[in-house]
Amino acid sequence: MTARKVKKRARKGAKRRPARKRAVEKRQVKKKPVSKRAVVKAKMPAQKKPKEKIIGIVTHYFPKVRAAAIKLKTPLTLWDNIRIKGHTTDFTQVVNSLQIDRQPITKAKRGQEIGLLVSSRVRRNDLVYQA
Predict the structure, then answer these.
(1) What 3-state class would DSSP assign to 3?
(2) Which of the 8 DSSP states describes residue 102?
(3) Whose CA is closest to 53, among 78, 79, 85?
(4) How far apart are CA 75 and CA 105, in angstroms?
(5) pLDDT tens digit string along 80-124?
(6) CB-based contacts of 31: which residues, under 8 Å, 6+ apart?
(7) Residue 102: left if φ>0, alpha if ψ -120 to 50, beta else—which one?
(8) Among 26, 31, 44, 59, which lies 20 to 30 A Cα-Cα from 50?
(9) Domain limits at 79?
């Protein structure tokens, strides 16, 4: 090598070999014994919410008239409070219009598919709860 190339290499920095990685020992962490009382406290929920009773499932939505077709699992009457909950839907309302085959009714039995005016958009398979 000429003196000129040696100076150039010294300015840029000589290529170095990568340093060897040393094996790192993992420290053993001692676990503290947990009492049964602590386990029971951790599993208990802070407050229990009352379970809502499922009335039915939305089978279809008619956007022009803002009505939903609902398959009932329990009876439903006019002026009941209901809650409709789904992936993007969650609202409560009062039942002010019930229909079966476009005929207004006041009570609907279990197993019937009813038409219901809704205040907001609902989607198929949204659940209807008694509020």
Answers:
(1) helix
(2) T
(3) 85
(4) 12
(5) 999 999 999 999 999 999 999 999 999 999 999 999 999 999 999
(6) none
(7) left
(8) 59
(9) 54-130
pTM for this structure?
A: 0.62
Q: Give the pair of three-digit tokens for residue 128.
A: 């209807």
What is the Cα–Cα distance from 18 to 20, expressed in whole angstroms? 6
Residue 80's CATH number: 2.40.30.10
Please give the single-letter amino acid code of residue 93: Q
Do residues 116 and 98 make contact, with C-beta atoms less than 8 angstroms apart? yes
Any domain includes 10:
no
Tokens standing for 81?
A: 């409070």
Residue type, 42: A
> What is the number of other CB atoms lying within 10 angstroms of the CB of residue 114?
22
| Any domain includes 106 | yes
Residue 93: both structure tokens together: 């309302």
Contact 86, 71 (CB under 8 A): no
Rounded to a whole number of angstroms, the CA Rg of the chain reads: 34
Asked if residue 96 belongs to a domain, the reply is yes
